[in-house]
Amino acid sequence: MTSALWVLIALQGPASDLQARVDRIRLAAGELLTLTVRARTRTAEPVSLTLPPLTGFAIVGSREVTEVSVEGALGQTRTTTRELRLRAERAGTLVIGPVRARQGRRTVATEPIAVTVDSVAAGPAASLSPVARGLIAAAAPPAQSDRVALSVILPGDTALAGAQLDVVAAAWFPRELRTRLRRMPILTLQTPEGVWSYPGASPSAPAASRLVRGGWMDLFVAHQVVFPLAAGRVIIPPAAVDYAVPVNFSFFSREERYSLKSDSVVVTVLPLPASRIADGPRVVAQGLALELAIEPAESRVGEPLEVSATVSGLGNVALWPEPVMRWPAGFRAYPGEATVRVEPRGGRMAGSKTFHYLVVPDSVGSFLLPEIRYAYYDFAAGDYTAARAPPRALAVAQGAEPRAARPLPPLDRSASTTWSTGLAAGLMPWGWVVLLVGPPLLAWFGRRRLAPRRAAAAEEPGATPLSRLGRLEHAFHALLASHVPDPVARDGDGLARALRAAGVESAVADHVMRLRDRLRAARYGPRGLGDAAELAAELAQVLKVLGAEPSGSRRRLLVALYEVGALRAAADSFAARAAARPAVAAHWYNLGATLYRAGADGKAAAAWAMAARLTPRAPLVRRARQFLPPPDAASESLLATGVATPSEWALAAAAGWVALWLALLGRRQGGGIVVILLGLLTAACAGLAAREWRHQARPVAVVAGPGTAVRVAPYGGASAAITLDAGAALYIERRQGAWIQVGRPDGVRGWLLASEVVPL
After folding, report:
1. Residue 755: helix, strand or coil by DSSP?
2. Which helix (H) or strand (E) element contains residue 532?
3. Is residue 606 within 8 Å of residue 758, measured between CB atoms?
4. Dist. CA 360–CA 743, nearest whole Å
5. N or C: where does the chain have the smaller number of CB atoms within 10 Å of the terminal CB?
């Protein structure tokens, strides 16, 4: 009996080898996966495969293949493979049950397979804001599932002026078409006029998928946040989508390009309700908070305080206006830059805006900074309210510098380059070429055309006198150039910003920019000048306001900072002016005076040396040498200047050159001595100009601090060859990283850190 049983088992053959697997176990709803079932047996009897219910999946394709192979003594092997293309229909954990294979009387089964299907929001749509995702979820699907559809989605057809409005462009693509694209489509959403916009997220991958009338469609979106600036109508421009479809399935096939545009959408912007406050607030926000910070906590007379007022909450952060600050008597406040930080919260634009002030107290005592109120319209509450900062007590002690410990040099109130420097720079390069070549040519041409009797020179007709409006316009542009030296900023849209940076009040700066545009329209527009008397009166008023400040309130600020002892702030401001206009000697002199008062003798000596090179005969500059003489004779020779600048000597040589050739042209008997004297004078002036230019062209550095060691090698552990005092001058020979090699005629030679000297 046992032998018969073993014979029966041998005749039935070995059991079938059955496997079932998927190409991935996690995917998003609407995506495809492949289920592969493989059954292998060594008998010729056919194998029957039974699939489980595929709940949550839809079969989009299948393929079955049977292969028979012969493996020598082992006999033949039959392999049956079935592949199913499945599409996930819903999110969650979907289970593919056991797959069964039956061969004869034997049945084998596989283990169940669990597949995790994520919602679309967990994919590219996660980068969108919750508001945008809500608009996409509530949007109606396209009417047809076999073509591309494009639309603009809005939360409604009305919006409140100053409140947030989300704009979403939605492009629906059939799944079959989208899978054929080699590149993702390009979706463009233009910014409407009359709004302040913030760009939103625009994922390149599909943000959602929907089953529309039996066909899957993928959604591409572009999001933008806008804030209407005024009541009225805002037209949302049409959105556009561009894509290219291959002609066939070959990778090298050409593509047909398509472009689709949506319809424009009109939004009605409603005005804000009437405010109970006079000139009611125009800020629309939610949950605003106002914080006031004052550093340092303890102040002294003349020492500046850094005050910052921070407004934070939901709304259009960039356009929040400055709070009204009521400073105590005896406090001078100078507004600075405002910093904006945008941090969206829950799909709403939010963040903070910080307004900075430099405040200088000029008297001792206890002061109270009153409560600060920041009124706004709360769109969530539908009413007006205000953010408040409580009053702050300020105690001001006696200044640490009641009297100057050393002679106090006066400031130079001028703010222009010397006439010789400006003229010499203006002649570069062709003016000097004309002065060099022109007189000989004129003399040669004059001698050829010389006649017994010279013709009388024709009298040049006088220039047409300017009208009052023309004179005021010239003065207006000259005053603008003195406040804003940069011609690009002066002639462009950044004039108001540049004027505010120069110290002009915000309202005045905006008015000046409008007046400039009005002058352009009057001069070049189709309507002409219009009322010239009214325009001239407005010009005169603006010139009076701007001209009342000696080059603007910024200069008054610098003088005030210097006089009250805020030396660090004054030095930074003078240094910025000197860097912007290095040809103005007054900036270098004022920087040196501020540094000298602060005790930075080396840096002060370098700044005064630059001023001496520009105006060597100026009384203030000559007096500065008495305040801070060079520490040694070698430094004095390196920092010394002649009685004139190279530009002045060059102009004198040019004048002598022209006079020389004029004398040659009109030479009479006995006039040779005049020609010789003019030639000698011209040569002497040219030689002095070349000598002074060579003296100033060689790079010189001034030691910044006292007791500075000149080292024998360019590293910190090297021994010191000599120690120099602040204000000592040396020649710069070469640079090596952070070190410079210096030397001078008296034998001093070595290395210094670049931070230890001030190059001229």
Report:
1. helix
2. helix 532-547
3. yes
4. 44
5. N
